[in-house]
Here is the input.
Amino acid sequence: MATGDFSDRDGLIWYDGKIIPWREAQVHVLTHGLHYASSVFEGERAYEGNIFKMREHSERLVRSAELIDMHMPMNADEIDQAKLEILKANNLTDAYVRPVAWRGSEQLGISAQATETHIAIACWEWPSYFGEEAREKGISLQTSKWRAPMPDTAVTASKTAGLYATHTMSKHAAEADGYTDALMLDYRGLVAEATGANLFMIKDGAIKTPVPDCFLNGLTRQTLIQLAKENGYALEEVQITPEELKEADEVFLTGTAAEVTAVGKIDDTDYIVGPVTRTLREAYESLVRSKQAAAA
Here is the structure.
């Protein structure tokens, strides 16, 4: 995963219509987004100069802002263009791309009608979220005490900063106990996701993935569902209990940062990095670097 002081790096950042030196991309301490989590963001990857699912990510950024009642001053076309500009300005072809939009310091308080929405886009090299060792061993997950909220108590369809506080706490607790990441259950006690990735399980060659009715329906998740069908696998989007997950043969995670990452252990249950995971991981890696993806 990405580490280091992200305020002190070489490079350039797209910030409110201008490309500026990385270290000059600053916000005020009384920014509304800092105090009230009124910000939305995306995580994207560029492969050989092409940002995978670029338009879908831009559209989701706009939609995420709408869902938290935050005005978005740019449309998807303009956001796409800005992402390509900053990727080129940093001379990067394989990179992680992070657009973020937030309410500024023009007003402080629960009301935010007078704030301006600011947008920044950063990009940097980030080869593997969980590290190369995870390819053969898989990562480990610990079930968190925190749960995904009911969809009428939080804006679960928005990729908004406020939803990630429980994920950070869950990941910290898991890492303190020697695990890589946390498994999040939903408000019903059903399997939901990891802290930054969606989950798939395989039993007897068939694939199941939780219904995203109270957590983000990831774009990589949607891609893997299509790839699974194209590769002839039976796949269901269903509710999964923790007990059923224990009986799985294979488990893997999907996400822009995680890509396709095998899970080798959840709590005290071990899993193999098996043939279905390997096949779909290879299919995904081939797709994101294909001419088909570049043209999309």
Notes: The domain at 12-124 is CATH 3.30.470.10 (D-amino Acid Aminotransferase; Chain A, domain 1).
